[in-house]
Specification:
The complex is a heterodimer of chains A (140) and B (380). By secondary structure, chain A is an alpha/beta fold. Chain A contains 5 helices and 4 strands. Chain B is 39% helix and 12% strand. The chains are: A alpha/beta (140), B alpha/beta (380).
């Protein structure tokens, strides 16, 4: 049996986590091909509907990743993102979504190695969870 | 602050007593208009009306067990800009709470507003109310209140107050400037009227009402009603959770949805001027639908149904006041109020917030603290 390959959508902020992904690349760090990065200017612009849409389209996991607290280039976008993630983490599990499929991390621009490690670990975690229920059943 | 007075009831007609009270308020000329539910001359349905002439309050019926829409939206329209005069609005407790939410979102102001509220014993959904009204005619409101105060809301077989009302633990208009109390009062004789703010006090002072004590049995009657409602609410939460705890079940729950978005239009706290779901963002390319269909062999059309409802939960559940208008507006009788209340309960608890309770509590998604919710960060 072939191993389950999850699809994970990662919304990464331009200034920190995307830069870290870039650094991981230039430092020849490797990370799983399961990640699909969506570059946004700030995690503060990631509306809940983007995340819900990703799940409805069959993503097995969604990651939102931005600057460490205090480092946001728009002063407080990451704090707003954290509140929205809190909101979704209260709502989605009510309908049987495993909360581990939805993750928020802070990865700074210089953390290329940490970026690659996080991607590897997250992919493994979602692989263990198996395919999302939105994938198998019919979704209205 | 707490002036308590009574208004006398003649011939058991509490509606008339309340009507006379509002006529006297409008007569004082300090209030330039009243927004109050009233039976329209051309039809018997109840509608909010904006009245400036005291003689035009003849068919006002704020106690009728019906609210065709949540009037918070209308009050928001009336208070968006200064209008140079005071308006008194007669609202249900859930309408007051919804309006508070809109004020916090800068979609209404309190400056020229006086809010009056009546103890709420619940409302029928619009279609049920019309049947009830047809059966009982002019006595409908009176019959409802006399029964409901004794705990009986299903007076005509098959017509009961909505599940949202049955499970509402906020039947007292706490945010009103003027409270009209039925619970605990001897309504064959008088109603209680109480000023809950300096604005309300100013109105009552001008009217020379006879002062009175709060009825001694009021507290007990209020807490009995609240505990009855709360236990019904908990039952509903259990039932709804059981019916929706997987995505498959949620699909099943929402299967009758035709994406009419009536629930969003009826929702008093769905605050966007233009909803993303009616913009071109959701006017997908025709080939896109085919692509989606090919993935699983079929999709339901119109698409994006569960997506829409989940997004609405994420956007407004923190502001949900549980008025039940989403269910009232649904053409296919999806029990949306139960679903949204359950979600709202969960999210408001998470942010330690109660929608519509206080103007000082900021909406959860409009503020943040630096050191909160650390536990949701990271992948451990």
């Amino acid at each position: 049996m072939t191993e389950f390959e999850p699809n994970i959508i990662a919304f990464v902020c331009n200034w920190c986590t995307y830069t870290a992904a870039d650094l991981a690349g230039t430092s020849r760090q490797s990370y799983p091909k399961n990640m699909r990065l969506v570059r946004v200017m700030c995690t503060g612009m990631v509306d809940s509907q983007y995340i819900i849409k990703a799940f409805m389209e069959g993503a097995d996991g969604v990651l939102v990743s931005g600057c460490h607290p205090g480092d946001c280039h728009y002063i407080n976008g990451n704090y707003k993102a954290r509140r929205r993630m809190k909101m979704l983490k209260e709502i989605l599990p009510l309908f049987g979504f495993e909360p581990q499929r939805l993750r928020l991390t802070w990865i700074g621009a210089s953390d290329g190695i940490q970026f690659a490690e996080t991607m590897r670990e997250l992919t493994e975690q979602v692989r263990v969870l198996g395919p999302s229920q939105a994938k198998s059943g019919m979704v209205l | 602050m707490a002036i308590t007075a009574k208004i006398n009831v003649k011939d058991n007609d509490i509606s008339a007593a309340i009507r006379e009270f509002f006529i006297s308020v409008l007569d004082t000329e300090d209030v330039s208009a009243i927004l109050i539910p009233q039976h329209l001359p051309m039809k018997k349905m109840l509608m909010p009306t904006l009245v400036t002439d005291p003689q035009k309050l003849e068919t006002a019926d704020p106690l009728a067990p019906c609210f065709p829409m949540n009037a918070a939206r209308l009050v928001s329209r009336l208070t968006r800009k200064p209008i140079g005069g005071k308006i008194l609005v007669v609202l249900r407790p859930c309408e007051i709470r919804a309006f508070y939410e809109l004020v916090k979102l800068n979609q209404g102001t309190m400056d020229e507003l006086i809010i009056a509220g009546v103890d709420c014993l619940g409302a029928y959904k619009n279609s049920d109310y019309l049947r009830f009204l047809k059966q009982h005619g002019d006595k409908a409101t009176e019959i409802f209140y006399q029964n409901a105060l004794n705990g009986k809301t299903e007076i005509t077989e098959g017509i009961d107050i909505s599940p949202a009302c049955k499970s509402c633990e906020n039947p007292i208009p706490e945010g009103a400037d003027i409270l009209i109390g039925l619970l605990g009062a001897d309504i064959s004789n008088h109603l209680m009227i109480q000023a809950q703010s300096p604005k309300g006090e100013a109105v009552l002072k001008r009217l020379n009402l006879s002062e009175a004590e709060e009825p001694s049995s009021r507290k007990e009657a209020v807490s009995a009603l609240i505990s009855k409602r709360s236990s019904y609410r908990d039952e509903i939460f259990l039932k709804t959770h059981e019916a929706t705890d997987t995505l498959d079940k949620l699909n099943n729950y929402l299967a009758n949805c035709v994406n009419c978005y009536n629930c969003r239009v009826a929702c008093p706290v769905c605050y966007c001027k233009e909803c993303v779901f009616v913009t071109d963002v959701f006017n997908h390319e025709p080939y896109q639908y085919i692509k989606w269909a090919k993935r699983k062999g079929m999709i339901k059309m119109p698409a994006d149904t569960v997506f829409y409802h989940l997004t609405r939960m994420a956007h407004i559940s923190a502001a949900c006041v549980g008025c039940g208008q989403c269910s009232n507006a649904c053409p296919n009788d999806i029990p949306l109020a139960e679903l949204f209340r359950m979600v709202a309960w969960q999210t408001q608890k998470a942010f330690d917030y109660t929608a519509g309770k206080s103007l000082d509590e900021k909406p959860p998604l409009s503020v943040f603290r630096e050191d909160e919710f650390q536990e949701i960060v990271g992948i451990k």
